[in-house]
Design goal:
Number of helices: 17
Strand order of the largest sheet: 4-7-10-3-11
Largest sheet: 5 strands, parallel
Helix content: 40-55%
Number of strands: 11
Number of domains: 2
Distance between the termini: 46 Å
Shape: globular
């Protein structure tokens, strides 16, 4: 009996695309890489191969940014993907690791409570008490495994990790060595190892990176989508993928329904209407493409299980308000003013205005 997982890793979900790229990839590959840098960027940006295989885009944006990111990993410097929340940093990190190493699971998730052991190594305490400190008692974490196997390691939300724990990476990045002082030994990285870190400076509780650590990374800043059409395309693609993986019976919503949510989030995020005629107060949230995807996906679930299967204004209103109104006082006032001053006056948006007023 097989059990369907809620979310497949990138290397499993896009296994056929990665296999097709490997077949036609005749360009030089760095040590331990499954694909050449050219093929990795093709996998990220999408395109059509010589044999007719269509590679779906994983990142919609500036191709040069992806080329810089991938080229960095072919050197001895780590890669730091910076950007505000929702700019696909983790998504890009996962897909780069899947394409280069064939394994995106070597990951350290950064939080305010991430201990030094999560980056270095742990101990099997039963064996430690029985035999003392030996190599067999060492429990290898993702970084140590990546070093010994020659794979990429992902460090998510690096700036959430306490500063003293962050600096554990300095020796690993500069010397490609992980000391084990208890055994008077060290683990030396084999070729193919590198680190992809993600970080943003927008969230509360951010810990600044030391200058010594910053120097060990090449930083690539991922911007928010430049245009409305680009953001709508990103949301539409991800919603269709999520709807399929979650087996939501409702069909993917029309582009125009997505465009309404994207328009609202962009206007509130930018502090002005799309025509530039009116200035708007900005809420405290980031209102990223990731939050738009969440609003549309939850709306599809509502439409499927409690409606007629077609996404309507009432299905997205509650999710949209939840994304916008983070501060129950200030953000509520901001959104109420936006509803009355913009949404209410827009042609064809009366249904959305009424639905939001009912929930708000």
């Amino acid at each position: 009996m097989t059990t369907a997982t809620l979310r497949e890793t990138a290397e499993k979900q896009f296994a056929s695309e990665l296999a097709s790229l490997a077949k036609v990839d005749d360009k030089p590959r760095p040590a331990k890489w499954k694909l050449s840098p050219w093929a990795v960027v093709t996998y990220l940006i999408g395109g059509k191969l010589k044999d007719g295989t269509i590679i779906t885009p994983k990142y919609v944006g500036n191709q040069r940014l992806m080329e810089i990111a991938v080229a960095t990993l072919a050197t001895d410097r780590g890669l730091l993907l910076m950007g505000v929340p929702g700019t696909a940093k983790s998504w890009v990190s996962e897909h780069i690791a899947a394409a280069i190493s064939g394994d995106s699971t070597l990951m350290v998730q950064g939080t305010a409570g991430t201990p030094e052991e999560a980056i270095r190594y742990g101990w099997n305490y039963a064996m430690l008490l029985a035999k003392g400190p030996t190599r067999d008692a060492v429990v290898a974490g993702p970084v140590m495994r990546g070093m010994t196997e020659g794979k990429l390691v992902r460090v998510e939300e690096l700036t959430r990790i306490p500063s003293d724990v962050q600096d554990t990476l300095i020796t690993i990045l500069s010397e490609k060595t992980l000391p084990i002082p208890e055994l008077n030994e060290e683990v030396r990285a084999v070729r193919g190892f590198n680190i992809i870190a993600t970080a943003n400076d927008r969230d509360k509780g951010v810990n600044e990176l030391s200058s010594a650590l910053k120097r060990r990374f090449n930083t690539v800043v991922l911007p928010v989508p430049d245009t409305m059409d680009e953001e709508v395309d990103i949301v539409h693609r991800r919603v269709a993928q999520l709807g399929k993986s979650l087996e939501i019976p409702a069909p993917a919503p029309a582009l125009e329904e997505i465009r309404r949510v994207v328009t609202i989030f962009r206007e509130l995020r930018d502090g002005k209407t799309t025509d530039g005629k009116a200035k708007l107060k900005q809420p405290s949230g980031s209102l990223s493409a990731a939050e738009t995807i969440s609003v549309i996906t939850s709306g599809m679930a509502l439409a499927s299980h409690f409606g007629d299967g077609t996404l309507k204004a009432a299905d997205i209103a509650s999710g949209m308000i939840g994304a916008i109104v983070k501060d129950p006082v200030q953000d509520r006032v901001v959104f109420q003013e936006y509803l009355e001053g913009v949404v209410k006056e827009r042609d064809g948006w009366k249904d959305l205005y009424r639905a939001c007023k009912e929930v708000l």
